[in-house]
Write a sequence for this structure.
């Protein structure tokens, strides 16, 4: 359920295209995100209207709010106006909070028609530290587990801080190979290491993955907690790990110059990028270096002499790895996989936890190199498990729905971009739309429209392939430190090869279906929390720049105006129809734009305009805009 701050709401019903309107009287006791049972009817305007019958699941248990104290009475009011939540707080539940404090409060009793809701203060926050405010708000808003029970911490610490030498002796020894990790500058958990050498059939590529399954066994507290989390959640200055840091940041992480247990995908790749063979085995390794994407890019692709010299003896095997990457990248292009490369917004945070800048960064070839190696390992594992008919979780991505494709074609037509899509669409058809635009300024926006037309990738035991990657077999194997499905795939693969290193497990179809549903849901929750914090912090950045003019792109046209992406900050704001004061605007046929009656000025989807920021609400992610003077 999606609530509006003025009191009404809209309910999304599975299987229904249209949302169900909930008038204010039906919102009593209902909060943003709740799951409801409603009785449907049609109103005079022929829209669906709901009558609330039962709240099936409350979405909000804790919330960000401010404290109000009047005499012996204390209250906490939710900062997000959509919740319309005000709770009484007893003196013993204030936890030292004072008038005007920003806090995280936990609901202890739901409100009724006769009694106010009650809450307990859990954390006092500093409103001048927006990163902390955003992260704590996200933890409360999405119910993110952020502390491990003592039993899980004890299980993690019981493994010690070094690899058991007896376990290492039972495994294949890769310590003589110069495997390296290549990650971002601020990475702390290193899941994967890579190595390549020439082979008579092309190349030998080893992708060595942290052997988390050795340490996190089924039916342990560690396993239960990992299932509850589903994935690590990454914020600008903090990580909520899926596993305790004794494992995620230390014993499992493939740090340089120390022994680590790993699970290797040892593959032969042809010079045309085809997977010729693969074998999988538990191993022990010692990473030769921890490289960053920047270091690897400068040495291997830019060719900076100092960066190449710094690699020393690693340069030769890494140059072979570059050849592997080029072969795999060409194979990706041949099969027509989507290959979109929109810049990623990175927040620059100062020591006081304030947002000082928003930088848009492009991926470099070192990012793509690691991505192609990981994709190949995931394919090899999925093929092996499928061929052996070993039940596991696949990472699947279905074909776009016909209705969404029709909307995409209509939007492209409004942008004067011709797109003829066949009845049986392939990724190559979608990729071709973007490629026709070359490197023009509108290409990232068109690519975003194509992505929005496709379904979300999910985890499930039934393999339907991965549409976006144009692959028939795909499973997540390469990130078990931070993703539970990868850990599960490790266990099923160990069971297949009969590994005696511990951690092998088999699952029934019912167990896999349930785990696929839960891990897909938890992945979505983590993504939403990440977006919430990013939007919150971008809004705090814009709040200090009210009155300034920005370049924008009209992303969506709606009946009350249009949403504009502020390009330098990568966040959307609302240009309300009431703010269009230079003319009287009418909506064009098809709803893809507004046109001024007098000037003929068009504000259409995909158009670049200049906007002024007039108001910002970080907590609700709202940015109000007005049109800058027309050139």
């Amino acid at each position: 359920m999606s609530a509006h701050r003025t009191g009404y709401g809209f309910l999304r019903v599975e299987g229904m295209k249209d949302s169900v309107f909930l008038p204010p009287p039906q919102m009593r006791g209902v909060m943003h995100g709740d799951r409801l049972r409603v009785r449907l009817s049609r109103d005079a305007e022929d829209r669906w209207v709901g009558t609330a019958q039962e709240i099936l699941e409350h979405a909000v248990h804790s919330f960000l709010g401010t404290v109000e104290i009047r005499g012996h009475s204390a209250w906490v009011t939710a900062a997000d106006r959509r919740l319309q939540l005000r709770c009484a707080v007893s003196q013993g539940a204030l936890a030292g909070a004072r008038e005007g404090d920003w806090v995280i409060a936990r609901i202890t009793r739901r409100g009724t028609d006769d009694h106010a809701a009650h809450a307990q203060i859990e954390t006092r926050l500093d409103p001048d530290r927006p990163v902390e405010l955003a992260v704590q708000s996200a933890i409360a808003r999405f119910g993110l587990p952020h502390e491990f029970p003592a039993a899980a911490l004890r299980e993690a610490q019981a493994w010690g801080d070094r690899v058991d030498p007896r376990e290492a002796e039972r495994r294949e020894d890769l310590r003589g190979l110069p495997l390296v990790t290549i990650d971002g500058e601020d990475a702390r958990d290193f899941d994967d290491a890579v190595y390549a050498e020439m082979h008579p059939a092309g190349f030998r590529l080893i992708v060595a993955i942290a052997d988390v399954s050795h340490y996190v066994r089924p039916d342990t507290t560690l396993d239960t907690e990992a299932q509850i989390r589903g994935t690590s959640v990454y914020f600008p200055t903090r990580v909520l790990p899926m596993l305790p840091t004794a494992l995620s940041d230390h014993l499992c992480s493939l740090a340089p110059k120390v022994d680590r247990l790993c699970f290797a995908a040892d593959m032969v790749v042809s010079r045309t990028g085809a997977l010729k063979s693969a074998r999988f085995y538990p191993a022990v390794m010692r990473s030769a270096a921890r490289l960053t994407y920047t270091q690897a890019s400068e040495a291997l692709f830019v060719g900076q002499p100092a960066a190449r010299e710094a690699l020393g003896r690693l340069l030769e095997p890494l140059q072979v790895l570059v050849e592997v990457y080029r072969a795999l990248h060409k194979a990706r292009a041949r099969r027509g996989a989507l290959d979109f490369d929109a810049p990623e917004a990175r927040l620059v945070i100062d020591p006081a936890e304030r947002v000082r800048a928003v930088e848009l960064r492009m991926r470099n070839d070192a990012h793509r190199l690691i991505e192609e190696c990981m994709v190949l390992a995931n394919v090899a594992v999925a093929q092996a498990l499928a061929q052996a008919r070993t039940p596991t979780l696949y990472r699947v991505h279905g074909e776009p729905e016909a209705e969404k494709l029709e909307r995409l074609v209509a939007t492209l037509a409004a942008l004067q971009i011709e797109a003829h899509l066949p009845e049986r669409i392939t990724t190559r058809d979608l990729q071709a739309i973007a490629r026709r635009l070359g490197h023009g300024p509108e290409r990232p926006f068109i690519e975003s429209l194509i992505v929005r037309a496709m379904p979300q990738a999910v985890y499930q035991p039934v393999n339907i392939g991965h549409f976006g990657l144009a692959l028939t077999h795909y499973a997540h194997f390469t990130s078990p430190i931070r993703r539970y499905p990868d850990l599960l795939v490790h266990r099923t693969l160990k069971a297949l090869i009969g590994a005696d290193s511990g951690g092998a497990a088999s699952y029934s179809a019912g167990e896999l279906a349930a785990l696929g549903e839960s891990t897909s849901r938890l992945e979505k929750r983590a993504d939403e929390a990440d977006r919430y914090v990013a939007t919150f912090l971008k809004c705090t950045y814009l709040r200090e720049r009210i009155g300034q003019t920005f370049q924008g792109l009209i992303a969506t046209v709606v009946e009350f105006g249009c949403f504009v992406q502020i390009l330098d900050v990568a966040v959307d704001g609302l240009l309300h129809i009431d703010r269009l004061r230079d003319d009287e605007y009418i909506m064009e046929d098809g709803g893809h734009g507004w046109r001024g009656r007098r000037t003929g000025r068009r504000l259409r989807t995909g158009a670049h305009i200049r906007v002024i920021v007039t108001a910002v609400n970080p907590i609700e992610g709202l940015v109000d805009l007005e049109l800058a003077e027309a050139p």
Summary: The radius of gyration is 27 Å.
